[in-house]
């Protein structure tokens, strides 16, 4: 089942290049989708286009095809270092995906080169690559692109290279400084599945008299227009915080042969619950992906795409534009921080006319979110029948924390990050931090004790029973890491410390401001990301040890020590 129109490619007012038609034939794309039949002729007749079309409706080809056509039609041939087209996307994964689609088409046109400018790689390598092979088509994420514009000192004059820019396609992202570097004479296309105020600003700032295209789906029940794909079954379920994870595990155990994305609100929650799911949902491949990962992201993404079944535990880095084949379920363990992200997340399934399902887990006091989505996002949800065979897996998660300090730490970070993300929810009338039942939440996170954080200060939680185990005695499974910790504890015992105990009394949530400082201290120690110890944690320990030594030798004051002591990372997507 697909979602194409009756119009074949040869029904376009301008005949497409033979090479493009051949690739379309190879892909077996016989007909255009509605957004393609609307946008391609406009783009090719020099119009700016602002297109809003439902997720999975073929927006990528609606700009990839005109880009190649317009470059082919240029009177003056592009030189090696002249950029004729620029595509800007919000995430690396989406950039990678678009460059693969572009490659399928431009390999028939060897006169054109393309380059991918995305984070996670060494920028100097990008500069060298650009100088070596040139690039007529640039596909980039905004941060790396901006960085490249500023690298004149490394011998790359990207601002000059884009002077002959023909087409700019932007994929639903915020206004940013790169517009400043681009020539005014250009065609611009803006593609998104949702219309937000940010996008509206961008349409006004970056497009000239754009033609607005809106392709929406007819609702199934009525003639109402909805923003999500027509063949998407969109559900919600209500559970208390302490029951949510048990319900998720039961659901995943019942859908082992399918492919699921599970969205969490923060990187720390992905790290924690992802590990727990690896252990609890047996004989299923569980991958985790989030924005804090540096090197492994592309590989995980590619691996998951190729799987027939499996679970991808992720943050909103996977929410927009990602085209993973045959996703059966999109599970939103935590609702996203914005209503438009809800639509994008659901759109990872039911693509191009296929059937798909989505389920969001809501707390009892969040039920009004269902009405909000229906009105605000034209996204109606149905209540899911109760999930059967729910068993209590939380004692097992607690046992994991007792067996390995790394898991215990992850749980604490996840809890803190969740509360902080909750406090920043865009829809603060529904997601109110003061309504959160912290004891139930902590039970749902299978915590052994409550972390110190301002949100809990001065409150008592009789409904939460702390473990009887002294959590300071929990060891890291990773021997090196435990050795470091012991060393640090010994140093600590020998050193007259400031009155405030540096790990025990520091509020976890307050420590996050120091993340930037720790980043600058930079990871000298290269480490395999697959190991139990991640780079940042190990650096944190090494750095703490170094600081303690300095304090002991009298090289820094107690005050400086307090200021510099490194901290826990609580990181959002
Ligand atoms: N004309 C076509 N015929 C059949 N399949 C198509 C056609 N155009 C695109 N597709 C396929 O449809 C899927 C979705 O396309 P694409 O990723 O471009 O959607 P999108 O609208 O950009 O989605 P999102 O809003 O999530 O970014 C892809 O797998 C793509 O290969």
How far is it from the N-terminal to the C-terminal residue, by CA? 34 Å
Fraction in beta strands? 5-15%
CATH topology of the largest domain: Rossmann fold
pLDDT averaged over residues: 84
CATH architecture of the largest domain: 3-Layer(aba) Sandwich
Ligand kinds = adenosine-5'-triphosphate
Number of domains: 2
Q: Percent range for helical residues?
A: 25-40%
Strand ordering within the main sheet: 3-4-2-5-6-1-7
Largest sheet, if any? 7 strands, parallel
Quaternary status: single chain
Return the structural class: alpha/beta
The total count of strands amounts to 16
Poorly predicted runs: 219-223, 499-505, 521-541, 565-573
Features:
Helicase_C-like, alpha/beta, globular, hydrolase activity, 2 domains, disordered C terminus, 7-stranded parallel sheet, SPB4-like_CTE, Rossmann fold, hydrolase, EC 3.6.4.13, 573 residues, 16 strands, binds adenosine-5'-triphosphate
Secondary structure: elements and pairs:
Layout: H1 18-26, H2 34-44, E1 49-53, H3 59-73, E2 85-88, H4 92-106, E3 114-117, H5 123-133, E4 137-140, H6 142-149, H7 158-161, E5 167-171, E6 187-192, H8 197-206, E7 211-215, E8 217-218, E9 225-226, E10 232-238, H9 241-254, E11 259-263, H10 267-280, E12 286-289, H11 297-306, E13 310-314, E14 329-332, H12 339-346, E15 356-362, H13 369-376, E16 382-383, H14 394-403, H15 405-423, H16 438-444, H17 479-494, H18 515-521, H19 535-552, H20 558-564
Parallel strand pairs: 1-6, 1-7, 2-4, 2-5, 3-4, 5-6, 10-15, 10-16, 11-13, 11-14, 12-13, 14-15
Antiparallel strand pairs: 8-9
Bound molecules: adenosine-5'-triphosphate.
The site of adenosine-5'-triphosphate has 20 residues, from helix 3.
């Amino acid at each position: 089942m697909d979602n194409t129109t009756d119009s074949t490619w040869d029904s376009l007012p301008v005949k497409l290049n033979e090479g493009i038609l051949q690739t379309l034939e190879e892909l077996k794309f016989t007909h255009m989708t509605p957004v393609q039949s609307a946008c391609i002729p406009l783009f090719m007749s020099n119009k700016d286009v602002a297109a809003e079309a439902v997720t999975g409706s073929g927006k990528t080809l609606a700009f990839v095809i005109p880009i190649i056509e317009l470059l082919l039609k240029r009177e003056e041939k592009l030189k090696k270092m002249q950029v004729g087209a620029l595509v800007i996307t919000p995430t690396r994964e989406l950039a990678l995906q678009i460059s693969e689609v572009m490659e399928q088409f431009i390999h028939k046109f060897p006169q054109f080169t393309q380059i991918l400018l995305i984070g996670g790689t060494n920028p100097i390598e990008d500069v060298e690559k650009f100088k070596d092979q040139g690039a007529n088509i640039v596909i980039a994420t905004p941060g790396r692109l901006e960085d490249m514009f500023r690298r004149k000192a490394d011998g790359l004059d990207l601002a000059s290279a884009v002077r002959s820019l023909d087409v700019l396609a932007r994929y639903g992202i915020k206004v940013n400084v790169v517009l400043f570097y681009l020539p005014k004479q250009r065609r611009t296309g803006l593609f998104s599945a949702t219309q937000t105020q940010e996008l509206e600003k961008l349409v006004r700032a970056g497009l000239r008299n754009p033609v607005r295209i809106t392709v929406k789906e007819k609702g199934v029940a009525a003639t109402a227009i909805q923003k999500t794909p027509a063949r998407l079954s969109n559900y919600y379920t209500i559970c208390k915080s302490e029951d949510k994870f048990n319900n998720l595990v039961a659901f995943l155990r019942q859908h082992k042969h399918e492919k699921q994305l599970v969205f969490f609100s923060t990187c720390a929650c992905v790290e924690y619950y992802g590990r727990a799911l690896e252990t609890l949902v047996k004989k299923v491949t569980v991958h985790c992906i989030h924005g804090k990962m540096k090197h492994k992201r592309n590989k995980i993404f590619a691996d998951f795409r190729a799987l027939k079944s499996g679970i991808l535990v992720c943050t909103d880095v996977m929410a927009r534009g990602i085209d993973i084949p045959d996703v059966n379920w999109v599970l939103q363990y935590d609702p996203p921080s914005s209503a438009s992200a809800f639509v994008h997340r659901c759109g990872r399934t039911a693509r191009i006319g296929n059937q798909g399902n989505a389920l969001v887990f809501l707390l009892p006091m969040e039920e009004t979110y269902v009405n909000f989505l229906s009105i605000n996002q034209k996204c109606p949800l149905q209540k899911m029948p109760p999930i059967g065979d729910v068993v209590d897996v939380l004692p097992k998660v607690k046992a994991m924390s007792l067996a390995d300090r790394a898991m215990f730490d992850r749980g604490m970070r996840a809890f803190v990050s969740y509360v902080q993300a909750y406090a920043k929810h865009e829809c603060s009338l529904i997601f109110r931090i003061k309504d959160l039942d912290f004891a139930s939440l902590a039970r749902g996170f299978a915590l052994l004790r409550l972390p110190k954080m301002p949100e809990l200060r001065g409150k008592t939680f009789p409904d939460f029973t702390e473990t009887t185990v002294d959590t300071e005695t929990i060891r890291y499974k990773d021997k090196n890491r435990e050795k470091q910790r012991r060393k640090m504890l010994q140093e600590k015992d020998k050193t007259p410390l400031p009155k405030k105990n540096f790990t025990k009394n520091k509020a976890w949530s307050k420590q996050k401001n120091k993340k930037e400082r720790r980043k600058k201290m930079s990871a000298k120690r290269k480490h395999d990301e697959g190991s139990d110890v991640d780079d940042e944690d190990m650096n944190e320990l090494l750095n703490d040890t170094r600081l303690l030594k300095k304090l002991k030798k009298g090289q820094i004051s107690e005050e400086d020590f307090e200021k510099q002591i490194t901290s826990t990372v609580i990181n959002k997507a």
